[in-house]
């Protein structure tokens, strides 16, 4: 289900619109759309901004998948926050991958290594065949191989599920990599400095307590890996 990593070449480059241009530490901006898509393909959780009726902002974590030049995610039709998105409320979606802790000699210069994408826009509601397909794309991104084994949603479950798409038209990509950048005065200090890399990984599958006895762990479950930076699983 991995889709074209380059994206539609007629779309604006990441960070090229007025409101997506990185101003603070602008050298961390990445204008290459493919880098943004690789980050989206490697992540599992997006944070989506939404306001309630009073205008108060919320940030909702969701599972998602990239599908070409858009991001797909789903929520409950009963959720007032998701209904706001379905009605076309403007939103901001972010995906962040944490790659390491950067220990500078000073706490001020200490930071993190990360790769992040921010998308601005309005969601569209997907219906019928597009909705079915989107649920498959999301499932296959999060759990490759699962769609062919798990029971698919029935009519009642589909009716309770809101599926949304957000175009990747207006987006920015920010990547922080490399060693700590200490002030010259701090470098001679006897303080350890460096990077502690951080990797998110799956551990051994734990069978459900009510699983049919001795039912084996499927190969696709054993094979689960976070997608590589190249986008492949
Ligand atoms: C794991 C992590 C930890 C961080 N910790 C801190 C922290 O402790 N303190 C801190 O000040 N900042 C931190 N940042 C950076 C923070 O996300 C912002 O980039 C930074 O605060 C600048 O925000 P701004 O609105 O002033 O940037 P501006 O450069 O003015 O933002 C302009 C535009 O740049 C884009 N942009 C900004 N930030 C990002 C981003 N992170 N990813 C993608 N696009 C972006 C957006 O389109 C935004 O509209 C962290 C980032 C990550 C991923």
SSE arrangement:
Layout: H1 33-42, E1 45-51, E2 57-67, E3 70-76, H2 80-86, E4 90-103, E5 111-126, H3 128-142, H4 155-159, E6 161-167, E7 170-176, E8 194-197, H5 219-222
Antiparallel strand pairs: 1-2, 1-4, 2-3, 3-6, 4-5, 4-8, 5-6, 5-7
Bound molecules: flavin-adenine dinucleotide (FAD).
Flavin-adenine dinucleotide (FAD) binds next to strand 4, strand 5 and strand 7.
For the largest beta-sheet, the strand count, sense and barrel status come to: 6 strands, antiparallel, barrel
- Strand numbers in spatial order across the main sheet: 1-2-3-6-5-4
| Strand fraction | 25-35%
Radius of gyration: 20 Å
Outline type? globular
* Ligand species: flavin-adenine dinucleotide
**Strand tally:** 8
Structural classification: alpha+beta
Helicity, in percent?
10-25%
Q: Roughly how many Å apart are the termini?
A: 10 Å
Q: Low-confidence spans: pLDDT under 50, at least 5 residues?
A: 229-233
Order of helices and strands: HEEEHEEHHEEEH
Quick check: average pLDDT?
93
Number of alpha- plus pi-helical segments: 5
Oligomer: single chain
Report on this structure.
By secondary structure, this protein is α+β, with helices and mostly antiparallel strands. It is built from 5 helices and 8 strands, in the order αβββαββααβββα. The chain has helices spanning 33-42, 80-86, 128-142, 155-159, 219-222, and strands spanning 45-51, 57-67, 70-76, 90-103, 111-126, 161-167, 170-176, 194-197. A 6-stranded antiparallel barrel has the order 1-2-3-6-5-4. The longest helix is centred in the middle third of the chain and has 15 residues, at 128-142. Mean pLDDT is 93; it is low at 229-233. The structure holds flavin-adenine dinucleotide.
